[in-house]
Amino acid sequence: MVFCAIFYVKDVAITNLCLLLPRFMVKIVRFYTFLQQRDVHNRDTSIHLKMNLLQERLSKYDLPQRVKALDVYPYFREIDGKQGTEVEMGGHKVLMFGSNAYTGLTGDERVIQAGIEALKKYGSGCAGSRFLNGTLDIHVQLERELAEFVGKDDALCFSTGFSVNAGVIPCLTGKNDYILCDDRDHASIVDGRRLSFSQALKYKHNDMADLEQKLARLPEDVIKLVVVDGVFSMEGDLAKLPEIVALKHKYKNVVIMVDEAHGIGVFGRQGRGVCDHFGLTHEVDLIMGTFSKSLASIGGFIAADDIIINYLRHNARTYIFSASDTPAATASAMEALHIIQREPERIERLWEVTRYALEKFKAAGFEIGETESPIIPLYVRDMEKTFYATKMAFDEGVFINPVIPPACAPQDTLVRVALMATHTEEQVDRAVAKLTKVFRELGVLK
Ligand SMILES: Cc1ncc(COP(=O)(O)O)c(C=O)c1O
What we know:
Largest sheet: 7 strands, mixed
Number of domains: 3
Shape: globular
CATH topology of the largest domain: Aspartate Aminotransferase, domain 2
Helix content: 40-55%
Bound molecules: pyridoxal-5'-phosphate
Radius of gyration: 24 Å
Strand order of the largest sheet: 3-9-8-7-6-4-5
Strand content: 5-15%
């Protein structure tokens, strides 16, 4: 109750009282009811006696219930059809600005057809890992094409991008070596690092002085693996790759791995990614990518020189001990890869609409940070208001995603807007108008 009271006193003080009071009164009543029910539940000692230690511990995790009680729960919202720029959700039509399908290919007939044909030819799954019975000719073909596309000797396809990072990072270095990560790196990089026997170091986001300070203290004759997002997935800014490469030359045995999840299909020649955009492909030792964004499917890959790939092919545990990506997913990703190379106008269009949206959000007064990509963060800097912004935007017909800890620092909560090549300027205008209204109602925009 105390938390509830503080929360509302604070909110009401800084938001537009006239517009929000009725809405908040309903929420207060709902939240109060929830707390009462929970108190009754907790007082029921017979339930507590029945709980084992695990249940007792996990039952204390009630953030989802608290957010649901406020009627602003933003997760697992069901989409009834293909993920285009407008989607149906339970009879409610919304503008989709929460997708990672930058090239807008997830509903493309050619990509769908490629999946259908592979499904018919190879069946629904591979019934095993690449290592043993799960390698198809299309896996090998896609690996060859991806390697050539990103400019490396060879590549390996995994069943998700997450499993690339979780399998490759711990496989590369030993217990005397070091893994250095940007503190905003994706969760899959963090988990890959956690699975490693190497020593872990984190440097402040894009702070090259901090990275250098850390590198300078480390022994010369150990491997120092720097793993970084090419495009930071929540904030939309780029890794400072030229500076990281300069440090690679300054210090001995530095190896660089770049996660191109949000770079491929967006940056570089024909969407080859951020390494290509900076002209630094040959300086980056490992390039990781995923099929779940611009390549309109699911799966991931790692590309590197022959020596590294040969080692990973026979040792990366998420590659060897997990089933290979399905025939349909593989064929759809390959078709998307062909389309982005054949249709450069798609990426030009993505950038046109991105530039347009960036200008519009800036002109409307949103705080959008350092973004240089189709990912536009709209900073809210308050967790509860971030949930409200997401829900109120949804009610107004705009789907966006809330970003709260651990995906960002507590003071940096935001809603994430992401563009697709298929968005129109008119759709951007509509979204900016609706989000301006919501942010004003919440007192985030003046
Ligand atoms: C930067 C980054 N790396 C890796 C991944 C994991 O990729 P996947 O969705 O293919 O598992 C994501 C997905 O959100 C990502 O944003």
